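Extended Data, panel c. Modelled sequence:
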Amino acid sequence: MPAVRLLERAIALDNEQAEYFALLGRACAALQQDGRALEAADKAAEIVAADAVTLDTIGCIYSHAGAHEKAVPQFLRAVELAPQEPQFLYNLAVSQRFLGDFDAAEAAYEKAITADPLFFKAHWSLAQLRTQNRESNHIQRMEALLKQAPDDVEAQVFLHNGLAKEYEDIGEFEAAFRHLATGKSLVRSGMEYSVEDDQEMFTAIENLFTRDFLEKPVPGCLSEEPIFIVGMPRSGTSLVEQILASHPEVYGAGELDAIGRLAAQTVDDCGKNLPFP
């Protein structure tokens, strides 16, 4: 990627700029090179950036890689330098939520909304943070905002989905379904999705991966290290991972997309405009 090469040249000329390492980390993260991205973020953090944008970038690299404990200090410093920037506050809240600090996350979301009442994704995230009740919720605020942004599709999606969550929490299921249906319809209207394409892909998979194909002897992976958990969605695969990861010698890596990306890349390398496989 040209950006990576240019940033590496910039660092070779001056390796004391936290911004250069942060931008390199962001570029590597975009390429799914999480290891290199984390190394660059660590270098940037060691230098100690003096501007909020660079600090936020470092935090986002850590957050993208799941290193939220490293992300929070970077976001806190970014917010300290730019306390009225809602995106920095939002990023901080996201990492705090991942770490289970819900009170701090709630406060950061509210500060983002105070800085910009029309920062709609903070309203949605706040709705998702806790189970709401009739005495404590954000329904009235979000209902009012719906009327302020009738032509902003993104805003409408965030608000309708947030309202669906909170109405469901308080037991008003008809209102919840109404908002959910509206929000999802707005998303669907902007999607370039074809059921026929999915049907073609599933047919190709079914035709290739026959019983005879799967029963062919293959060497597999000779390493004793990787454990692959395979199953349909909602079938308990995450629970199996949690059980295995509770062992001190097993690390749960989460739902990685590496194999999917390799499969897609293989199709691209063959020069074929075909769905997997």
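Residues 125 and 162 are 8 Å apart (CA to CA). This feature is highlighted in the accompanying rendering.
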